[in-house]
Amino acid sequence: MSIRFEVKTTFQVTKQKAYTALLDLDSAKHWMQGFVGIERLEDGPIRVGSQWKETRKMFGKEATEHFEVVELDEPNKIVLCCDGTKGTTGKGVYLFTYIISSSGDHSEITLDGEIKGLTGLTKLFGKMMAGTFRKACEKDLEALKAYLEK
């Protein structure tokens, strides 16, 4: 069983600009809340299979998580996987699917989040944490929006 959540944000930028911004790891320091650093695990452009370690300060502590690009459909869709067993979380698989749609010079990003692989007490806490994840993702998209629209 998985735990799901959804976040939607409308941007006053083109679909292509929204797509590109989501994959621009170098600009994350300008908008990502609690940003500490990102370590790319290979060189070159972001593509399916690209991996990085992302460190943020959350709840007063630094947490590092391992991300991998699972799917890219430019400029429509980005799927990222965060394997909790390779990071501070220690458990679960977190899938982040970004769907980008547009109307003229406006675009909408819908983030479908899914948490899988939690068992026992972590499953119970995962259900409670889904709201926290949703709020954090919502703040990230709002911060990205503010950065892109300035």
What descriptors fit this protein?
Polyketide_cyclase/dehydratase; START-like_dom_sf; 2 helices; Carbon monoxide dehydrogenase subunit G; alpha+beta; globular; 7-stranded antiparallel beta sheet
What are the SSEs and their pairings?
Blueprint: E1 3-11, H1 15-23, E2 35-40, E3 51-58, E4 61-73, E5 77-83, E6 93-103, E7 106-116, H2 120-149
Antiparallel strand pairs: 1-7, 2-3, 3-4, 4-5, 5-6, 6-7
Organism: Aquibacillus albus
InterPro entries: Polyketide_cyclase/dehydratase, START-like_dom_sf
Protein name: Carbon monoxide dehydrogenase subunit G
The main sheet comes to:
7 strands, antiparallel
Mean pLDDT: 91
How far is the first residue's CA from the last residue's CA?
41 Å
Low-confidence stretches: none
Overall geometric form: globular
Estimated share of beta-strand residues:
35-45%
Helix count, DSSP H or I runs of 4 or more residues: 2
C-alpha Rg (nearest Å) = 15 Å
Strand order of the largest sheet: 1-7-6-5-4-3-2
Approximately how much helix is present in the residues? 25-40%
Number of strands: 7
Could you state the order of secondary-structure elements as H and E? EHEEEEEEH
Derived from helix and strand composition plus strand pairing, the structural class reads alpha+beta
